[in-house]
Amino acid sequence: MALSPRTAVADPAATAPVRPSRTPSVRAAGRRPRGRWLSPAAVNAALALAVLYTLFPLVWLVTAATKDAGGLLAGNALSFEGFDLAGNLSRLASEGDGVYFRWYANSLLYAGVGAALCALISVAAGYAFDKYRFPGKEKLFGAVLLGVLVPTTALALPLYLLASRTGVVNTYWSVLVPVLVNPFGVYLARVFSAGYIPDEALEAARIDGAGELRVFWSIGLRMVAPGLVTVFLFQFTAIWNNFFLPLVMLSDQRLFPVSLGLYAWSGNAHGEPSFYPLVVTGSLLAVLPLIIAFVTLQRHWKAGLAAGSVK
């Protein structure tokens, strides 16, 4: 008896293709539609307003420096009508036998020498805190961090009393010496030292017979150059804009920085309006060293800020 072959019947449910689930993923469920306030046009518009708000005082300063006293008091400072920049510069140079440029030289002395020495001292202190072990190291560094929290204006009176005891009031030293110490610069230098100077390079130099001072000067200082430039720029800006410390320490106008000298002229302008163009033109010239410093050293400054943010 022959057996007939069985006919296999396919199950439609078994042969149907498997479709992916339509259940939304967690990432897709967490997304929110981007609103119109976050569109590129809105962001760019907000940035443009911020730039205009930042640059407007500088634009006003450039145009106002070309006006005489009448043009400034007339309220038409944002136009170049009645351009007289050369006349303002000439009067600025002749006022008080050229005392403005003496103030300018004083500011360059205070800011240039003070920032350079402060940056070197801060980097040396930060290097020591990072690479050496000594008793009370972290407690001493905590005291440095506490110094960051103290505003500089609160230290003006104690510094004046110390300067009075040592007999340096109304001298260059009374303004130059206090700016040589910057607690924030020491903290920043320690961060840069930890990120830029490998311990292996220092050990190799010591094995070769180099002393600790030679190791720091030839290896450590060169490796931490971006941090040195960053501290220098911060301190240069702070000293150049410093006003309260010279106001407390100095009474001789020949020792004034630009900030204090322009303040004195601004007080005279209430009774004699001819000082208004001098104050505005002097303020415009006072911005130039800061711009030159940042443009010249911006490559090192940007690298230093990037490393500091990562660390």
Automatic annotation (TrEMBL):
Q: Where is this region: Disordered?
A: 1-31
Pfam families membership: BPD_transp_1
TM region(s), chain numbering: 41-62, 108-129, 141-163, 175-198, 219-240, 275-297
The UniProt entry lists membrane topology as: Multi-pass membrane protein
Domain named ABC transmembrane type-1 is located at 104-297
What Gene3D superfamilies does the record point to? Answer: MetI-like (1.10.3720.10)
Q: Which UniProt keywords apply?
A: Cell membrane, Membrane, Transmembrane, Transmembrane helix, Transport
Q: Return the Low complexity bias intervals.
A: 1-20
Q: Where in the cell is it found?
A: Cell membrane
Membership in a protein family: Belongs to the binding-protein-dependent transport system permease family.
The protein's name is: Carbohydrate ABC transporter permease
Originating species: Streptomyces chrestomyceticus
